[in-house]
Amino acid sequence: MDKDEKFFKAMGDKISSRIDKKRRFYFNVKNEDLREVVDYLFKTMGCRLSTATGIEMYHGLEILYHFSDDDTGTYFCPRVVIKDKEHPKVKSIVPIVKGAEWIERELFDFWGIEFEDHPRMERLLALHHPQNLKEPMRFGRDS
Amino acid sequence: MIANSIPIGPFHPLLEEAEYFELKVDGETVVDIDMEIGWMHRGHEFISEMKTFTQSIYLVERICGICSTSHPIACVHAIEDIDNIEIPIRAKYIRTLVGELERIHSHLLWLGLAGHFIGYDTLWMWVWRYREPVLQMFEIISGNRNHYGMMRIGGVAKDVDPASIPDLAKIFDMLGKKMAMLAGAVKDDPVLRSRLKGVGVLSYDDAVAYCATGPTSRASGVRGDVRKDESTDAYGLVEFDEIVLPNGDVYDKLVLRVLEVIESVKICRQCLEKLKEIKGPILNDVKEISPGEGIGRYEAPRGEVFHYIRSDGSNRPIRHKVRAPSFVNIPTYTASCKGIPVADVLITLASIDPCYCCTERSLKVVNKENDPCLIDLLKISREKTERIRREINGSK
Amino acid sequence: MGWYNKRLAKSLWVFHVSGSPCNNCDIEILDLITPAFDVERFGLKLVGSIRHADVLLVTGIFNQKIAPRIKKIYEQAPKPIFVVAVGTCMSGDCCFKDSYNKVKKREDIIPIDLYIPGCPPKPEAMIAGVVKLIGVLNG
Question: I need a labelling partner for A75 at 20 to 30 A (CA). Which of B10, B354, C17, C97 fits?
Fold first, then answer.
């Protein structure tokens, strides 16, 4: 059985609205299941976390994680949707993937998404910015 | 134990770009390292969302001057991934040729700078001399030394002139010989060996945990090369080896880059041979991009470049995410810089070939009246291009 | 200051600062001091500290975070100092004119004496620019 079939079977109903493309899988994951899915992808399957993308939609904020399986060139992209635009909060995956530290700090910087249990929840690019930005950069983008 | 801190940057004599490090030291030994970036942030992702797809390609070229064709290739891959657009076979070889030439020039650049960082300027001057023919090849192929503007959605913008292929092959012959010599010299050099062996080790486990990519992780024994994994463009059609070295110190990273240059020369030669035979179009006409999302990636000289583009069916992306290889490689300093003396820190910082521009993504006015020097500059530049052209035609 | 400039022109020491460029101009500047172009024949030399420099070479659009630092560097420089701006970014924003993080006007931060346009300028263009600066200093 292929790696990806095995993964989707193991995760079962934790995964919804799956989109299959050539070597790319996009699927929705709930916030409370995120750590379990990431743990399976990173530790059991040996995927590498490429990055995470923050997107602002009408219905809220989206975080799209990109996990790359380097042996087959496949991308697994769990998508977490946050309804609350004012105070977005997600569980951090830094305890599982050490390399996610900067990625999550960048998301905090741009989109104001707060990650629970992150060891150092600070701005990344706008740290010590002379303008003393209080808000995430997504609000200041119109100027 | 009282740890003192040493600040490095934002402007430091050795660092080309502005970045800030704070070393916590106990005596001579580094205990901890803290990094601050953001001095180079220009807001590419936001600007790209205001531009059309075709304009975006030229914009992402300006993310970084050294990987200035890796970003466009990843960007066009992402757009082509939305609709599964196929490109003509000749365009595939041209893309691979330009991408590999860039790897050669970038690795040589790093090799020279690494020599400069350890106070070995002879290596620097020597290597950069051999880098110059590579830039001239770019001038022959694309018309510019850097920022080539070759990529388009569905193909490439400019064809390789068949008349120039023998000249290119000649330069590759020279490069191949010099690189073999350089590989031998670097491996045997007692200065490099004693200065770099066992310095700044990044272990296998750390490379995996920090999700490092490219030469940084391959020198630590982690397999992973986008060229082999995804085989986009002509990489499935040419022969080359993926180089993995076990030790993870700076010396291995240096040797790995030299060996990769030799592989790249091999790939370029195969591409040139194929370009002689294969005729045909270089650009597929792509009318519009349908709604959807696409991921494009490419093995830049520093590691995996990642572009994510979401389209809503208009001619602009609604989200364009760029992740440069240095963004995941820079945090590995936390692992590799601990426990080494302060003197070894700078070469360790340089060992991943960091590019902060990626990570964050003469006209005289002194005396305006009587000196039309803008015309002069253009004249000089044109004369040089003309000269190169003449040389090609003359040798034919 | 004519007599002073004349002596200065014999050997200009250059300090190079990158203020949010795309890195390409910086690499081409380094290229100038390697054997292929070798600007040391005009007495030009890259130095490690602004305190030793006669010419400040700047590249890039200045972003808001780096602008105060560049101002500081200019203030630390021994006067007279000549500011040379390399690249299209410095002369006209290049493709970053819509960026939210750039400063509005770079000339407010440091005065600029010489612009060398190009993205990146060819080494020949840079040499031509610097030679012209030397010519002006010689009067």
Answer: B354
